[in-house]
Design a protein that fits this description.
With 811 residues, the chain is α+β, with helices and mostly antiparallel strands.
Length: 811
């Protein structure tokens, strides 16, 4: 306190602060009248130590700690990585001997690999697009058409910041998607200008006439492209947040490309000089002209007669195409292709997660964790040692003393002798089944897209005992499937529990339930007597029983309680003790208790087949045995269900929008249906592409099919528009559609080749970082190729069939 005197205020302090254990031991507890003192150290042992914790980690057998650093706000992975590495280098210079610090996993490396992969594939795609353009068109024309790609990309950067789109892996992938599509409108304009040039018009006259003739179909084809991607703005959940950049980038790029193809490209072509006839350029021009002449002859001599034959048998041709479509749909519905949310991407580490029953002694958890670590080290020693692994990290007690995680950090995929998946399978096989564990899961794809349990079945019942039995029966049934691993019944019996109930004798002695609870807790866990600062650290002074008096159930039963009068009473005389077990958690949904049985499926895309098998046999039998039991598929299956519902709604909205966009220029209810007829056949190509490339369907595959619905109508739109122009000029129906198909064969084929070429490097990519993006590229690339066959063969047939129907109605 303070004393106020005439000379001022004087502070008064008691200087008896104690910091070390020896100083606390000298505190007098009892002082007799004769001066005899009983010190604290006479009553108990005073020592310094660390707080009791069951959480610790090791790296390569040495005690360690792991720090995860996350980016926030506008920070980029690369800038965060650079800052952390610089700080680690500075810190390494100050560490005492025996302590080291290392970076074991840097996700920015994955980020940089993906950026490099996307940029590399983008440039390769651009080169292929230019080669095809130069082959079918004049070199100068090909150059100006190709120039539309960088102009559209650069122009989109003006719009993207207003859409809150940054340069990241998804937005770069969106640019690759548009790489071959964005030149479609420029190809249509450029090829039409090229046709007018071949008819003898001058550069400026050909540019104006060519652009004006296709302005309407080109404008609406771009609008249908944008319309097809718009539903991706409304995909719910985490999927929507991840992929919202794709429609934003596509809309911006296509909008700029429309302006470029109708205004900038014709201006360039109008002022372009004629082809050079000398030197290398002259040689290239002669090669291109020779190819063009032979190509046009082949179209007239082969495609023309073939199409005329198909038109004569138009009903058979359309029926055959529809049969092929039905087969593809049936193949998807049958589940033979498999379906998953994302393609799994292997991590740069393999991880084992061990969970034992609650209350398991720490020593047993440590022993089993060490067994898992030892098996990992044996695999590492036999397969390249340092060439395979950077080290083994083990953490015990992350969610309690009954659990642990072992993580094996692997070297770069390009230098290690095996994949993460192969290492994980070997590790699982060597560890084998461990009796008495709640769950033991091995993961090769932790933290990556598509990670997590392939199966999550939620059982629900009002009776906890029934729910537990049903969960165990279902888990046992799942273990019988050869491709199902890491089964968890969802029930973790809690720690053993002693329930105290006050006896009348205890109450008669003046003890309350609060008194008993407080004294038992203080005896077992201690009571905090003091908390004070010692330098930079906070030190807690805790008083509790010696360890040998609180380490067994007998010690607890032998505990002595103190009444308010100072009388000592054995605990067993004051309370009745009942043994039980607590549940670790009780989950409810709509008032009913639920339990989740989870498992992994290898490969994950076969989860659908396992689910169908469960629905046909095991689950109905389970609900029949346990009245009132219900089940649902949650987790990844629920995400697939939600995403597919959203996609189908988006597809319906996109188709309605595309129909409206086509009905406006054609002023017809029927002709938009002719153009849209090619949309479902893109699905046939997408399915075939997945089978050829060995991929299962994923959410991104569906995104690709959705986007395909807008792209495939481009060629049909221009084809039907040219047929209509020919008929208005007086041509007959057959000659009009036949002439339009032959005239548009080159631009239709060219737009298909450029789209496929732009996506080809991504489709053929073998890097693990590209795996989850490839399915969308497959859907677009293969879908557009097959849809082109429909455009060049079936759309003319349907055009004539619609005319047949309209003619019959008039009759």
């Amino acid at each position: 306190g303070a004393v106020k005197t005439e000379g001022g205020e004087i502070l008064v302090r008691m200087k008896e602060r104690r910091d070390a254990a020896a100083e606390f031991g000298s505190i007098p507890i009892i002082t007799a009248p004769d001066g005899t003192e009983v010190l604290l150290e006479d009553l108990g042992t005073v020592r310094e130590g660390f707080e009791d914790v069951d959480l610790y980690a090791t790296f390569e057998g040495q005690r360690s700690m792991e720090i995860d650093v996350y980016r926030v706000g506008n920070q980029t992975p690369i800038s965060v990585s650079k800052a952390v590495r610089e700080h680690v280098e500075r810190l390494r210079q100050t560490l005492p001997e025996g302590i080291s610090i290392d970076i074991q996993s840097d996700r920015s490396d994955v980020f940089k690999q993906r950026l490099d992969l996307l940029l590399r594939n983008g440039f390769m795609g651009l080169a292929l697009v230019f080669i095809f353009l130069a082959l079918f068109l004049e070199a100068r024309l090909a150059f100006w058409v190709s120039l539309g790609i960088p102009i559209s990309f650069l122009g989109s950067f003006v719009l993207l910041p207003s859409m809150d789109v940054s340069v990241n892996m998804i937005s770069l992938f969106a640019f690759i998607i548009t790489l071959g599509i964005v030149v479609d409108d420029a190809i249509v304009v450029g090829e039409n200008v090229y046709s007018f040039r071949k008819k003898g018009l001058g550069p400026m006259q050909a540019a104006v006439a060519g652009a004006r003739e296709v302005a309407m179909p080109v404008t609406f084809s771009v609008l249908t492209n944008i319309m097809a991607f718009l539903p991706m703005f409304f995909v719910p959940g985490i999927m929507g947040k991840m992929f919202v950049n794709i429609p934003a980038v596509v809309a911006a790029v296509f909008a700029i490309s429309l302006i470029e193809s109708l205004f900038i490209l014709p201006a360039h072509l109008g002022h372009s000089k004629g082809a050079s006839h000398h030197g290398v350029m002259g040689w290239l021009h002669r090669v291109q002209q020779g190819f063009s002449t032979r190509f046009e002859a082949a179209v007239a001599n082969w495609y023309g007669p073939f199409l005329r034959m198909v038109l004569r048998n138009r009903y058979t041709a359309v029926a055959t195409a529809l049969a092929l479509l039905m087969i593809s749909l049936a193949f998807i519905v049958s589940g033979r292709m498999g379906m998953t949310l994302f393609m799994r991407v292997e991590s740069d580490f393999s991880q084992a997660e061990l969970v034992l029953p609650y209350g398991t002694p720490v020593a047993r958890t440590e022993a089993l964790t060490q067994r898992i670590v030892n098996e990992a080290r044996k695999i590492i020693a036999k397969n390249g040692d340092e060439a395979l692994s950077l080290g083994v990290f083990a953490q015990l007690g992350r969610s309690g003393s009954h659990s642990s995680v072992v993580r094996v950090y692997l070297t770069d995929p390009d230098i290690r002798p095996m994949t993460t998946g192969k290492f994980t399978d070997l590790w699982r096989e060597r560890v084998g089944d461990i009796p008495g564990v709640e769950s033991l899961r091995f993961r090769a794809d932790a933290r990556g897209p598509g990670s997590g349990d392939a199966l999550s079945i939620e059982l629900s019942h009002r009776d906890m005992d029934v729910l537990e039995r049903a969960s165990m029966e279902l888990a046992a049934a799942l273990t019988a499937y050869p491709n199902v691993t890491d089964v968890d019944d969802g029930f973790a019996p809690g720690k053993q529990q002693l329930n105290f109930t006050m006896e009348p004798e205890g109450r008669n002695l003046g003890l309350s339930s609060m008194d008993v609870a407080r004294q038992v807790r203080h005896g077992l866990h201690g009571v905090e007597a003091l908390k004070q600062q010692r330098g930079r650290n906070e030190v807690t002074v805790r008083v509790r029983l010696p360890e040998d008096e609180r380490s067994s159930e007998y010690d607890l039963e032998s505990m002595v309680l103190l009444t308010a009068s100072g009388r000592e009473v054995p605990l067993v005389d004051a309370v009745a003790v009942e043994r039980g077990r607590a549940y670790t958690s009780i989950n409810r949904r709509d008032g009913r208790r639920v339990s989740t049985v989870s498992a992994d499926v290898q490969p994950a895309d076969q989860a659908g087949q396992v689910i169908r098998s469960l629905q046909e046999g095991i689950l109905p039998e389970l609900t029949a045995r346990h009245a009132g039991l219900s089940y649902s598929f949650e987790g990844r299956q629920a995400d697939i269900r939600e995403s597919m519902t959203s996609l189908f709604q988006g597809l319906a909205m996109a188709l309605l929008g595309i129909y409206a966009m086509l009905a406006i220029p054609f002023r017809s209810y029927w002709q938009p249906l002719i153009i849209m007829f090619s949309i479902p056949f893109g699905l046939v190509g997408a399915v075939a592409g997945h089978l050829i490339m060995g991929y299962s369907l994923s959410l991104l595959s569906m995104f690709g099919m959705l986007a395909l619905s807008g792209v495939v109508v481009n060629d049909s739109l221009v084809l039907v528009d040219f047929a209509n122009r020919a008929r208005r000029a007086g041509a007959g129906m057959t000659e009009a559609i036949l002439g339009a198909a032959i005239q548009r064969f080159r631009p239709v084929l060219l737009t298909t080749l450029t789209t496929a070429a732009g996506l080809a490097p991504m489709i053929m990519e073998t890097s693990v970082q590209a795996k989850f993006l490839i399915p969308m590229a497959i859907s677009l690339g293969f879908g557009i190729v097959f849809a082109t066959l429909i455009t060049l063969g079936i759309v003319p047939c349907l055009y004539m069939i619609i005319e047949d129907v309209l003619r019959l109605r008039k009759c």
